[in-house]
Amino acid sequence: MAEQPPYHPRDAIASTTNAVLLNGAAGVLISGVQNTLAKENRGLFGLFTKTGGTIAMFAAVGGTYAFIKDASANLRETDDPWNAALGGFFGGALLGIRTGRIPYVLGFGAGLATLVASFDAGGNHWRGSKWREGYVDDVARREAIRSTRRRAYEETIEEIGEGRGIYGPGYAERRAARLKEKYGVEVPLEHEKPYAY
């Protein structure tokens, strides 16, 4: 089995806030559709008074899923589909609570857990799996790019030379010595200020 990349902790509060806002916005959209399709005229505030439970349910399910998934990943220090399954179970259980029956709570929880865990196991993408293709951790990939692409400062100066905003240590002294040797001009190492206070 392939070695898992090192685990990087997740910010559960930030992802929960993002999920609540995003799913709440989706809930507002669905609530607006429900309000529009109603036979009686509910007015503008019917979006919140008559079908506002849809907004709350969307926000609660999304927030619960995101928090449980990230908290589980942080506690277990692994990134695998079981985290998504736990988040999906608790989010689905919230959907079932509206009915008030335990079989619905367990059924919705198990259904959503299966759905999101299989999606996560498939690589969180509709087209492929990060588990079968060899997952490359994004932080480790960026560090590898930095270490292979970074060049020594002295090597850069040696290759392209000094000037044009690129100056190595001791440039002012070398410049003053070069001008003194070539033209016989004394150049002060510290520049005078062009203005006075």
Structure, described:
By secondary structure, this protein is mainly alpha-helical. The model has no long low-confidence stretch (mean pLDDT 84). It folds into two domains: 133 residues, no CATH class; 33 residues, no CATH class. The radius of gyration is 30 Å and the shape is elongated. The chain has eight helices and no strands. Helix 1 runs antiparallel to helix 3, helix 3 packs antiparallel against helix 4 and helix 4 runs antiparallel to helix 5. One of its GO terms (biological process) is mitochondrial electron transport, NADH to ubiquinone. Keywords: Membrane, Mitochondrion, Mitochondrion inner membrane, Transmembrane, Transmembrane helix. InterPro entries: NDUFA11. Its main location: mitochondrion. It is a multi-pass membrane protein.
Main attributes?
197 residues, mainly alpha, 2 domains, 63% helix
Shape: elongated
- Measured by DSSP, the beta-strand proportion falls in under 5%
Structural class, judged by helices and strands? mainly alpha
Mean pLDDT: 84
Number of domains: 2
Treating each run of at least 4 consecutive H or I residues as one helix, how many helices?
8
Largest sheet: none
Oligomer: single chain
In whole angstroms, the N-to-C terminal distance is: 71 Å
Relative helix content: 55-70%
The secondary-structure element order is HHHHHHHH
Q: How many beta-strand elements?
A: 0
Poorly predicted tracts of residues? none
Rg on CA atoms, Å: 30 Å
